[in-house]
Amino acid sequence: MSESARELAATAAPFPPEPPPHPGAAGLLFEALALVADDLELAERELGRLLQSSVAIIPDVGGHLAFAGGKRFRPLLTALCACAAEYRAPARITVAAVGELLHTATLLHDDVIDRGEFRRGRPTARMHYGNGMAVLVGDYCLARALQAVSATGDIGAVRTMSDTVTRMAEGEVAQLQACGDHTLDRERYAMVIDRKTAALVAWCSSVAGLPDRRLVEALTVYGNELGFAFQIADDVLDFHPAEGGHREGQPGETGKEPGQDLRDGKMTLPIILACEADPRLHARVRLALQGPSPMPAGTADALFDAVVSSDALPQAARVAQQHAERACAALSALPASRARTALEQIATYVVRRTR
After folding, report:
1. Mean pLDDT throughout 197-202?
2. Residues of the domain holding 328
3. Considering its fold, how many domains does the chain have in total?
4. Between 223 and which of 113, 202, 230, 292 could a Cys-Cys bridge form, CB atoms 3.0 to 4.6 Å apart?
């Protein structure tokens, strides 16, 4: 790992992090992190190892995002699900690290496609290193992920990962194709989430299908429902303004620009619900999407305010909550344990989080 990448890794949040000063969603996350702190530390080291390369700029670009203070949501799921399923083989650490590596690859690619300027509260890798470098290092992350899983010697894990990456790619293409389409299509919205987001979360929660087969199905359902809850909650958070207002070019609660999905022409659930309730707003959105892309700031701000002032955000939040409840219900197939309780707390955290 290059010197700059080591510096980034050194600033990554330790496991477990410092306890939050107040209870709430962050407190739930801390309790879950503390339960599998040793596994997460091992996964963090493995992630650093997988980002190493004799081409010095590769760990620099990958580390710019991977060690920028992400929540490590996917490694946490893998560690907790492995614990809940009483699966202690070393491959669990590989899967935990690979889950984060695959997520890193998708974010590097997404920021180029979406022309994103902020990620996790800092300029994106493409802004720092250029689009080409971000895409190629994303490809490197995918290649290293495949290399790491194949090294476990379990062909089943390789198969589940290849199936997952294929579905993720399909979701990315479907989302890009739908950009700028004003159609209020909940089915397509759900399909994109299923493949772009939930597929990876489910792979991580199933620990690549390696635990007892009797438990893998329940873990997969849990992860799939959790993936839906996570993405819908994230789409709601996209309408939380940045401090001082939703000014373009400033990161909001999620670490990226608020309203970015709207400006990019993505019809997320809050926008769909707001337009279904108000045909006049739908007409305004249709007209805006027929104009230049990304949407001009003034137009985007007016539509942003219209969605926020509607009942769409609490409606979408309730849908996310329903998915979280179904995720928890799937866990009944697992034996009672602290890890299972922590997984239930994670589902609560996903829909309560503010960033």
Report:
1. 98
2. 3-352
3. 1
4. 202
